[in-house]
Design goal:
The protein is 0% helix and 49% strand. The protein is mainly beta and 114 residues long.
Amino acid sequence: QVQLVESGGGVVQPWDSLKLSCVVVDSARDFGNYAMGWYRQAPGKQRELVAHISATKSPDYVDSVRCRFTISRDNTKNTVYLQMNALKPEDTALYYCYVTGLSWGQGTQVTVAS
């Protein structure tokens, strides 16, 4: 069973920044060739793909976060990051990381409120 552990969520004010991290706990597998990313789900709303990064292609983002969020990965640490800048109240959600075809994390809460 592949375990994903997210961290970095919190309560911030509009225009603040947060950086989410997701560590894939599976020392037997090389995740360098797997696509990874982040979803989010706000109360009463459908789950939304926020950012996706593959091994070979440029990252992709939902339009609402493009130019504010940056996804990156460190394959030596089996970790994917989501740098979130200029946060807005509508970014409030539970953020989940995933490894395509393998597993999901439990989520980390991001709350943006003044």
